[in-house]
Specification:
- With 260 residues, the protein is α/β, with parallel strands linked by helices.
- The protein has helices spanning 192-197, 202-216, 222-232, 237-248, and strands at residues 7-8, 13-14, 19-20, 25-26, 31-32, 37-38, 43-44, 48-50, 55-56, 61-64, 77-80, 85-86, 91-93, 101-104, 109-110, 115-116, 121-122, 127-128, 133-134, 139-140, 145-146, 151-152, 157-158, 163-164, 169-170, 178-181, 186-190, 255-256.
- The strands form 3 sheets. It has an 11-stranded mixed β-sheet with strand order 3-6-9-12-15-18-21-24-26-27-28. Strands 1-4-7-10-13-16-19-22-25 form a 9-stranded parallel β-sheet, with no helix packed on it. It has an 8-stranded parallel β-sheet with strand order 2-5-8-11-14-17-20-23, with no helix packed on it.
């Protein structure tokens, strides 16, 4: 159902039961899936691919060109999954020739005034609280929670089930399952509350804690810690995910907190 005061370009592909409120503008080369609601004063620009049952609130701008001087009008995409809620004045820029797309996975909640820059890849079931900002080329895993006013440096990675406290500056990679806080950003424990809420058993949580004690609390360097974890801890998907994340880190993982 399109309101007469909305503008939808005739080349846009809109499912029949999409609701588009007044004063919204939808450009060509846009696809919007079934059941999606688009509030008033939303701008959806070329290259947007929006899934089913999404909700996009007033003032959001989806798939604007990147804020990157290297962008040269190449045809790139912004891909939004299913069941995604995008609140007021969120901005999500499309990709550049690096990845050719910016991606937000399924079942995400992106709160008001957040910014997701070009070439970011965000997993499923993530929550970004108000004013959180992702610079370009960032990888965010599944079930990640970024509290309000978190700022993430370009090319950083954040692992699955991580939680980053409000107002944090993320300059290094944040491994899976951890809670990150303080300044500079540091390991302050595992995300035990989040893991319990998502069905992790107590034994599995203790296993993850034991891994991070070796990595962060035993005064080993990363190479020594990884060797010890691999030698002494039973191989499990969680153990192997942590090991692989640290080994693959390009910016280096955040440090442990030893103050106080």
């Amino acid at each position: 159902m399109n309101q007469p005061l909305a503008y939808v370009h005739p080349q846009a592909k809109i499912a029949r039961n999409v609701v588009i409120e007044p004063f919204t503008t939808i450009h060509p080369n846009v696809e919007i899936g079934s059941g999606t609601w688009i509030g008033s004063n939303v701008t959806i620009m070329e290259g947007a691919r929006i899934g089913n049952n999404c909700r996009i609130f007033p003032g959001a701008v989806i798939s604007a060109v990147p804020q990157d001087l290297k962008y040269n009008d190449e045809e790139t995409l912004t891909i939004i999954g299913n069941n995604v809620t995008i609140r007021e004045y969120v901005t999500i820029n499309k990709g550049t020739n690096d990845r050719m797309k910016t991606v937000v996975g399924d079942n995400c909640l992106i709160m008001a005034y957040c910014h997701v820059a070009h070439d970011c890849v965000v997993g499923d079931n993530c929550i970004f609280s108000n004013n959180t900002t992702l610079a370009g080329h960032i990888n965010v895993g599944n079930h990640v929670v970024l509290a309000g006013m978190v700022a993430v440096h370009q090319f950083c990675s954040i692992g699955d089930y991580a939680f980053v406290t409000g107002g944090s500056l993320v300059r290094k990679d944040v491994p899976p399952y951890v809670k990150a806080g303080r300044e500079p950003l540091s390991y302050v424990g595992i995300n035990s509350i989040g893991l319990r809420r998502r069905g992790f058993e107590a034994e599995k949580i203790r296993e993850i804690q034991d891994i991070y004690r070796i990595l962060y609390q035993k005064n080993y360097n990363n190479t020594q810690a990884l060797e010890k974890i691999e030698a002494e801890m039973e191989a499990t998907p969680e153990r192997d995910e942590i090991l692989q994340f640290v080994r693959d880190s390009q910016r280096g993982v955040m440090k442990g907190y030893f103050g106080g």
